[in-house]
Amino acid sequence: MNAPIDDNTPSKPSNFLRGIIDRDLEQGTYASRRWAGSPGDAAHHEQGQPDPAKIRTRFPPEPNGYLHVGHAKSICLNFGLARDYGGVCHMRFDDTNPEKEEQEYVDSILDAVKWLGFGWSSNFNGQPESHLYYASNYFDHMYRAAEYLIEAGLAYVDEQTPEEMRANRGDFSTPGKDSPFRSRSPADNLTRFREMRDGQHPDGSMVLRARVDMAAPNINMRDPAIYRIRRATHHNTGDKWCIYPMYTFAHPIEDALEQITHSICTLEFEDQRPFYDWLVDRLAEGGLLKQPTPRQYEFARLNLTYVITSKRKLKQLVDENVVEGWDDPRMPTIVGLRRRGYTPEAIQLFCERIGVSKADSWIDYSTLDIALRDDLEHKAHRGMAVLDPVKLVLTNWDEVMGSGHLEPCALPALPHPPEGTESPVRQFTIGKEVWIEREDFEEVPPKGYKRLFPGNKVRLKGGYVIECTGCVKDADGQITEVLATVVPDTKSGTPGADSVKVKAAITWVGVADGVAAEVRLYDRLFTDAHPDAGGKDFKASLNPDSKKIVTAYVEPSLAQAQPDQKFQFERFGYFVADRKDHAAGKPVFNKITGMKDGNWAK
Ligand code: ATP
Ligand code: MG
Fold it and tell me: Are residues 403 and 439 in the same domain?
């Protein structure tokens, strides 16, 4: 590992990408870059000051769906490296495929990146400077690059049918066969290509191909298609073009025009790197791109257990109403994670912890939940909620406390407030009737049971010690009320309270001031840890119990929650007031995750 380059180099855990960046900074690989700030215009590379940004990375989604947790890894990586090295990360839409792209997706992607805590509106110094880019803004430049390749004998218009092209491409063991159109003159190719651009040929009738090497062992080098005819309205350029560049051609040009230094992508693009290099080198030779050209580096994509990370498959879940939209709290989309209650800090922490490597692996879903708990442990206010309520009646209340009396109670909202601060206090009351969990009473206690059973004493957390006396049942034998007596002068905080020793404290909510709430209990969307591995039908392992709705009672402080506010429901785990459906007087909470990992693995 290289020594830090300067005092700004942070002490982040190293990885192979930081190693590469350190090396490039040390060797001054990109020191000669000039920055004029408007990629794609002709003067861009000629003018400008030496680029003061040490590195330029980019996050280049295609706006064809909502981002998911895998993209979060790429966002944290690219924006994070730029932040840590005094560089800039470009927010760029790779919008070269008009049929599948929509403004709705563009907006949602920008929202997601912002929400995760990253931005594109300032430079390495924090000065205002926009770094939002669209590949479609470079269509003119890409077109010129294509004409240059044609003139240089490095591209040709191929009129073979798609079937012929496929057959002649060969495979791993067979070299490809030259197209009959491969030896056409540059002048003929140029005429044909301009006809393509001018709409004189039907969709799919011909393509422009790079002329590389039909016998290359890497099939990606066997004259890849670089432009196709497609009459489709583009979300940015409208109907200006009826030919569109292919990803393999467009992406390296985008990177080079924006003077990206480190073009970081997932491993499936490894086999495309030779063409990436071939293209930027040829175009740099022709003066269409400036040296030093960017280099591509691949890392292992995020695979998370019980989760699918493919926009196409996630879209299928939405389109087929398997879930209730892109932001369904069970979705691994960023909008879904957000609505579920995961915080940007937890997702960033998760991405830092999983790191980057070149070896594919599966990350256990619990890693994300642990990051969430680590983030919320000291931030989320505590509160009591009864999720499976049965009424507890304190039969001696009127006599010892007074008929209708409500006794004020209070507990800290944060058991461990930040140093030098005091916890806010939650206020609530106890009266003759309270809600308790049905599972906290047993008529005949199993061995070791410490909660309510006739003759046993427990503390109502933050309230009185009570002694259970029995229960009331309906005609079906269902318990409708648990009965107990209050042990006076035992309220928490009251002097002398400790004189009555009990083995358990149970959670509860007052009937008088508790508020009914809808609580949505979410679990994994799939029962299979690798739902789509090896082309498996992921819909075969949908978890039928991934969403359960209960009517709960919550203490007043929870009922006053703001939408999106996170809490720890004592004993149950972390919950969030639903961003969309929670409202004053009608609380709706989503379960984010339990207090610790359950026995899901069984
Ligand atoms: P999908 O396959 O889900 O449609 P994609 O790779 O086609 O995703 P893009 O919009 O092209 O989606 O992705 C933008 C960036 O996010 C790319 O650089 C891509 O490599 C990265 N990315 C996508 N999925 C993951 C993942 N699971 N882990 C890490 N990075 C990812
Ligand atoms: Mg993809």
Answer: yes
pTM across the whole model: 0.93
**357 with 437, same domain?**
no
Instruction: Report the atom number in ligand 1 closest to the C-alpha of 302.
Output: 28
Number of separate domains in the chain: 3
Domain that holds residue 148: 139-246
Cis omega (within 30 of 0) for bond into 162 = no
* 335 CB-contact burial (10 Å; exposed 0-12 / middle 13-18 / buried 19+): buried
Q: How far apart are CA 172 and CA 273, in angstroms?
A: 18
Per the listing, tokens 């002398």 go with: 496
Question: Domain check: are 405 and 480 in the same one?
Answer: yes
Alpha-carbon gap, residue 600 to 593, rounded angstroms: 12
The amino acid sitting at 379 is K
The domain boundary residue, chosen from 231, 246, 261 = 246
Q: Report DSSP state, residue 300.
A: P
432 is catalytic: no
Helix, strand, coil percentages, rounded to 5, for the chain: 30, 25, 45
Phi, psi of 460 (to 5 degrees): -80, 115
Residue among 56, 92, 91 nearest 250 (CA): 92
Q: Which of 62, 129, 159, 352 is catalytic?
A: 62
Q: Are residues 394 and 352 in the same domain?
A: no
Q: Measured from the CB, is residue 58 less than 6 Å from ligand 1? A: no
Parallel, antiparallel, or unpaired for β 34-35 and 49-50? antiparallel
70 Cα–ligand 2 center, Å? 11
Residue 257 counted as domain residue: no
311 Cβ inside 6 Å of ligand 1:
yes
The answer, yes or no, to whether any atom of ligand 1 lies below 6 A from the CB of 70, is yes
Model confidence pLDDT, tens digit, residues 535-591: 999 999 999 999 999 999 999 999 999 999 999 999 999 999 999 999 988 999 999
| Cα–Cα distance for residue pair 347/353, rounded to 1 Å | 10
